[in-house]
Amino acid sequence: MGETYEAAGVSIGAGEAAVDAIKADVRSTFRPEVIGDIGGFGGLFRFDPKKYKDPILVSSTDGVGTKALVARSVGKFDSIGVDLVAMCVDDLVCQGAEPLFFLDYISVGHLDPTHIKQLVAGVADGCRQAGCALIGGEMAEHPGSMEPGEFDLVGFAVGVVERERMLTGQLVKPGDVLIGLPSPGIRSNGYSLARRLMFDIAGRTVSDPAWDDPHAPTVGDELLIPSVIYAPAIRSLLDSVEVHAVAHITGGGMPGNLNRVLGSHCDAEVDPGSWEWPRIFTEMQQIGSVSTDEMRKVFNLGIGMVAVVPAKVAHKAIDVLRTSGHRARSIGTVVSGHGVVHFTA
DSSP character for 196? Predict the structure, then answer.
């Protein structure tokens, strides 16, 4: 008998079984605009331009970074897909866009249908939360370049916004209020440093307590808290009050993300005393004697999204966001400047 694809490490049968395993999760995300079913060569989405005067399509792509390594260590894969969706759709909404559809790409060293189903179930959960359809994707088995158990997860999102309602940051002006939306965990950013601090320096395992407290979660549970998906709340905010800008606080922290919406004529003055860091950040800072400036440059420190609104609507904006389930709060103001984020303490 001659050589086969399976002998080279790729199982066509496992791929077919994986597709069958994820069909229900994928279909659970479908919106009325979705045409066809899973299994086509491309995802089909009937966009209705009559709903818009001048529609602008907005796209975003991202991954989950080395948070995937934590998921692998714990053996828990059913929530990391939520992180993937959050990283993409919460970028779209920063430009005012409604997320429409999503595609994922999963590469593995060895294709296990059960593993794939858990990953896609998380992606589907994230899509349902965001209100977008999971209309396509790809799974690839890469023996030789990836070991069995290794995987990478990447996503792509497309949204739409009316041109006249697109957020560009041009409306931001001195006197505007910064409203922060809390993030209970690390989301999907800074995990290379987090893993070094918790595992290499502190010598902890994923099953150890995350900090010295009898009620503390395990390191694994704390590091795998799924990302909050802010897109629906921000969309509600945009429909309720005047919003000048929205910034997704990801890699680079507040100094590297909030500055992107300030333009060249404004600075942001952030009051770090207006919210409390989640315990995991304090623990990591102490483990590695990490400077506060470095922490601010790497992590979101408990604020996953910032909305910039006129002062006159700040209270209403906070009420809208709290009604959407987020304990929003004022965390600072916009002042004249040159596009820099300052902390008042």
Answer: I
Q: 119, 139, 165: which is the final residue of a domain?
A: 165
Task: Report the C-alpha gap between 27 and 328 in whole angstroms.
Answer: 33
The position carrying tokens 């990591």 is: 284
* DSSP conformation class of 164: G
Strand partners, 134: 102
Q: What whole-number distance in Å separates Cα of residue 233 and Cα of residue 248?
A: 13
Task: Enter the pTM of the model.
Answer: 0.94
319 and 204 in a common domain = yes
- Which helix (H) or strand (E) element contains residue 330? strand 329-336
Domain extent for 253: 177-343
The answer to whether residues 341 and 267 touch, using CB atoms and an 8 Å cutoff, is yes
Same-domain check for residues 156 and 181: no
Which of residues 139, 165, 191 is at a domain's end? 165
Written as tens digits, the pLDDT of the chain (345 aa) is 677 667 677 777 877 787 888 888 889 999 999 998 887 888 999 988 888 999 999 999 999 999 999 999 999 999 999 999 999 999 999 999 999 999 999 999 888 889 999 999 999 999 999 999 999 999 898 988 888 888 999 999 999 999 999 999 899 999 999 999 999 989 989 999 999 999 999 999 999 999 999 899 999 999 999 999 999 999 999 999 999 999 999 989 999 999 999 988 999 999 999 999 999 999 999 999 999 999 999 999 999 999 999 999 999 999 999 999 999 999 999 999 999 999 998
Instruction: Tell me which amino acid residue 94 is.
Output: C
Tokens of 69: 């390594």
Cβ–Cβ under 8 Å, residues 45 and 133: yes
Tokens of 270: 């952030």
